[in-house]
Amino acid sequence: NDLKLKVTAPFDEEDGPKEFDGGPNFVKAAFQQTTNEPFADQPLIGDGAVYMIALDKRIPSEIPTLDRIRDRVLQDYRHSQAVLLARNAGSHFEEVATNSLAQGKTFAAICAQAKVNAMTVPPFSLNTRELPSVEEYASLDHFKQVAFSTLPGHVSRFSLTPAGGLAVYVERRLPIDEAKMKEQM
């Protein structure tokens, strides 16, 4: 049928094939194939392609030598240490900010003194579906949960994210725009 046939380089369940992106179900389907049933019963939809897959051979798992994975181990270690430092700094900042707000300092002054760059977020509601400036650092649902559980004029508890964490200062809650609400109802 003039279909392109290709055998991938060996891949594992964690990383999948390096040659292409077979879509979210590719690796799971590939590892379900057996020598008795090597062909997948359904095509897999990938990014710009459809794949029919079959098992060529299984390669026994192995523990790679440190020399083979040294760069990845060092990169993972540096990343974990950076996240740990960010979390420690975030926890310390939350404590300083809470105490300083109680002493009457402004949030801007607290950030300047701590050499922290505060991000100003545009007004949002529980129904907001996207907030790109926030979603670059944390999930929107996580951010909204932290923000809406924090009283105006206070800073939230430091909340962990995959890259470190966040603390939210709620300046004020805005009243509902009655005209906009009536228009959308």
List its salient traits.
185 residues, mainly alpha, two-stranded antiparallel sheet, 39% helix, elongated
What does this molecule look like?
The chain is mostly helical. The protein contains six helices and six strands; from the N terminus they run αββααααββββα. It has helices at residues 26-32, 66-102, 107-114, 132-135, 140-148, 178-184; strands at residues 44-45, 50-51, 154-155, 159-161, 164-166, 169-170. The strands form three sheets. A two-stranded antiparallel sheet has the order 1-2. A two-stranded antiparallel ribbon has the order 3-6. Strand 1 and strand 2 form a beta hairpin. Helix 2 packs across helix 3 (107-114).
Give a brief description.
The chain is mainly α and about 180 residues long. It contains six helices and six strands; from the N terminus they run αββααααββββα. The chain starts with about 25 loop residues before the first helix and ends with a helix.
Q: Helices, strands, pairings?
A:
Blueprint: H1 26-32, E1 44-45, E2 50-51, H2 66-102, H3 107-114, H4 132-135, H5 140-148, E3 154-155, E4 159-161, E5 164-166, E6 169-170, H6 178-184
